[in-house]
Amino acid sequence: MDNGSTDGTAEVARRLGAIVVHCLEKGVAFARQAGLESARGEIVVQCDADSVVPRNWLSKIARHFETHAEDVGLSGDAKYRGEPLWHRPLSLINRWLNQISYWCLRHPMSILAGNFAARREALIAVGGYDLAFPQCGDEFDLLLRLAKTGRISYDPHLMVETSSRRFRRRFWQFLLADTFYHTALGLLFHRLTGKPIKGSRRDVRDEALVVRTWPWASRLRFATPVVLVLLVGALAYGFFMPSAEAFGKLYFATKTHEKVVALTFDDGPNEPYTSQVLDILQQYDIKATFFVVGKNVAYYPETAKRIVAEGHVLGNHSWDHSALQPIVDVREVDLAKSQATIEKIAGVRPHLFRPPFGHKTPWQMEQLEKHGMVVVTWNVSANDPKQPPSSVIAERIIKHTKPGAIILLHDGNETIHGADRSNTIAVLPQIIDTLNKEGYTFVTVPELLKVDPYLR
Ligand code: ZN
Q1: Which of 168, 193, 220 delimits the end of a domain?
Q2: Are residues 264 and 376 located together in one domain of the fold?
Q3: Is 255 inside any structural domain?
Q4: Residue 252 included in any domain
Q5: Which residue in 89, 102, 266, 434 has a CA-CA distance of 20 to 30 Å to 227?
Q6: Phi then psi dihedrals of residue 4, to 5 deg
Q7: Same domain assignment for residues 218 and 289
Q8: DSSP calls for 85-139
């Protein structure tokens, strides 16, 4: 089949005694269909012009169809000349999947268009090749239609040696463009809409020309996934890291040589534990900062009032501690509601805000800045929401505390009423004693950052 060949292949074939059929419409499906229409034999065999077949290839195929009357198709496999290293595991996986699929479904997962044979009458019965896939995907479509009429065998020993020029490109390009876009998505798109997906698979015959004309193009295409990975990494860093200021100004500690630190308690009020924390702080005459959840303040109003009455600072820790708050609260409903609730119950309007889980988005940070909020995270954490043993909590805090630290502990756990905090409570006096002995004094976050504790 001569489908716009420019390298003299057709002439060579003709000289060797082959019947060469011309197909002017460029595209592999058109060529295959023209081949099918001019074929006269019982079995139609497909092969690529750049493949080398073994000597007994045709006789092996003929014998297979003679001995397997129920078979309508037979797919072999290929060895790729100069196969890139990254493609070798894929070849192997493909071989295994074909074998498994053949055992389970009576046909391989994919047929190799360059080493495939089918009964001519079966091909004609299913309507031939689908011209909606001029460049690719036609073999999958054909496989699915043919499989309805009979068995399609897979013989991993029926091997041809073929060119790996299609794979001699960047891995990501192959994976995203060929495998994902043109094959998987293309097939799905065709199944759903009956139309081929836009864009065609690159014509490998033009490859050398393209690379020579645009030496930077392939490098830029290689750079795209790298840039994407870096971008996603940077966004994830800004979102997850409590100390990341990628999306706006925040405080996770302060720079000082003075041995001062701030104790902060999150997710309260939560009884009886918040009251127990307050009792301990009272005993040591220490002022701390409580980042309260609006919903919990509404549930434990007396505790919220006591926090303020005893000289501690109330910070805002969202309305209901939703993990989605930083992402979805674009209309500032959460912030307004939690601020209003805290002010109504405790009589103070917080100046400090700590995002739930320390997660941040650019729009949330902009919103907080607009409302004059100071965003506070932490740099020392016991990671105590899951209540590790007291000794672990103590070690995590004491080991990492340095001058100017903001220490995170939990007197609550999101919006769970009565969430067990006993390990934190039990070890709090020891933490205070040890840090006192090391010469630390405890201040509130506004004192540490030298900002007003409340708005207005
Ligand atoms: Zn929290």
Answers
A1: 168
A2: yes
A3: no
A4: no
A5: 89
A6: 75, 30
A7: no
A8: TTHHHHHHHHHHHHHHHHHHHSS-SS--TTEEEEEHHHHHHTTSS-TT-SSSSHH
Q: DSSP string spanning 26-58?
A: -SHHHHHHHHHHH--SSEEEEE-TT-B--TTHH
Strand partners, 2: 22
Residue ranges making up the domain that contains 296: 260-449
Which pLDDT value is given to residue 213?
43
**Nearest to 143, CA basis, from 103, 177, 106, 92:** 106
Q: Is the pLDDT of residue 352 over 90?
A: yes
Q: How many whole angstroms from 357 Cα to the centroid of ligand 1?
A: 5
Asked if the model's pLDDT at residue 168 lies above 90, the reply is: no
Same domain, residue pair 220 and 347? no
| Residues 175-226 pLDDT 10s | 666 666 666 666 677 667 666 666 555 555 544 433 344 455 555 666 677 7
Give yes or no for a contact between 294 and 320, defined as CB atoms under 8 angstroms apart: yes
Give the distance (Å) from ligand 1 centre to CA of residue 392.
19
Q: Is the same domain home to 350 and 425? A: yes
pLDDT tens digits, one per residue of 25-49? 777 778 888 888 888 889 999 888 7
Are both 61 and 163 inside the same structural domain?
yes
pTM over 0.85: no
Q: How confident is the model at residue 418 (pLDDT cuts 50, 70, 90)?
A: very high
Residues forming a β-bridge with 161: 52, 79
Q: 454 Cβ partners below 8 Å, 6+ apart?
A: 348, 349, 350, 351
pLDDT (0 to 100) of residue 357: 93
Same-domain pairing of 3 and 136: yes
Strands 71-81 and 115-119: antiparallel
Q: If you measure from the C-alpha of residue 240 to the centroid of ligand 1, how many angstroms do you get, rounded to a whole number?
A: 13
- Find the distance separating the first CA and the last CA of the chain, reported in whole Å: 83
For residue 443, what is the enclosing H or E element? strand 441-443
- The per-residue pLDDT for range 226-245, each reduced to its tens digit, is 788 888 888 888 898 888 88
Our count of domains for the chain comes to: 3
Catalytic residue IDs:
266, 410
**289 shares a domain with 233:** no
- CA angle 189/195/200 to nearest 5° reads 80
Task: Report CA(418)–ligand 1 centroid distance (Å).
Answer: 15
